[in-house]
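Person: Please comment on this record:
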Amino acid sequence: MIEAVIGRRDGTVRTTTAEDVGDLTALRESDDLTWIDATDGDAGDLERLADAFDVHSLSVDDVAAGGRTKVEEFDAYTLVRVNVIDAGADAASGPTDDLRGTTLGLFIGANWLVTYAAEPVAAVDTVRAAVERNRNAASVRDRGADFLASRVVAELVEEYFDVLNEIEGRLERIEEAVIGDPSEATLHEINDVRRDLLAFRRLLWPTREAVAMLALSDVDHVRERTRKYYRDVYEELVELVELTETYRDLATGSRDVYLNALAMSTNDVMKKLTVVATIVLPLTFVAGVYGMNFGGSPYNMPELGWRFGYPAAMLGMAAVAALLVAYFRQEGWL
């Protein structure tokens, strides 16, 4: 369904629906500030919007296909295509190679804004609710469509912070597990977080570049006085990129700590096995020597015929083992 939020000249806000091209065209040609919201729309809604607002077919394809965040200028409008974070791509749902959910298209005209997405977008709903609550729409109308678009982009970036906070919580739990009792599941969780951070970084970089263009360049349909709002969003994106790099370093550090702990545990096991083998080796030698009992040979060991030969051999082996154990304990190997 296509809905319209209209900031009228008399300072009031009106909300209506517009399903056919004629209604949409009339809204576009009015002197009021018109926000056409078609989030949770379908291909038919996008086609009607394109017809009513002279949206280029390339823009329609860009929004329908999705992709990297970008800004593209046309004669009648400026297109901002931005990715919405998937609400399910958080700690509860596990790793993902792509955090992008739906694609939001913002078409910024002289006195109109069109927002389109195939699914509901929380950021759009938040800004719309704020506009509709403002019974005196004069300030909103005076600020223009580019200002409304900047508020939507700002809300989307706030959602990026929410996802990064979820990842931060996962990192804290990983650090506790690594210091406490790391397991193979801990290593899997570390790798999952590193994959999520890499996907998040791939999403952030083009978004930062696009917002930088809106904030720092002379973009059609974005006035100079509105750029300061985009500059604030740009600074937040810079912070997000820096935090993502920091968290990725922390995840890498946790992985290194886990691998070092695993190596130390393996070395401890090998040391104990070596100690056991060292103790058993002389006992095996003694048992092997006295196992060669050739009774009929003149060169045979005379103690084989001694009545205390067997107890003496066993006591000797026990004494050797005891001496080795005492030595290893003295050296701190046991």
Q: What stands out?
A: The chain has two domains: 3-261, 262-330. The CA atoms of residues 151 and 333 lie 65 Å apart. The longest helix spans residues 224-290.
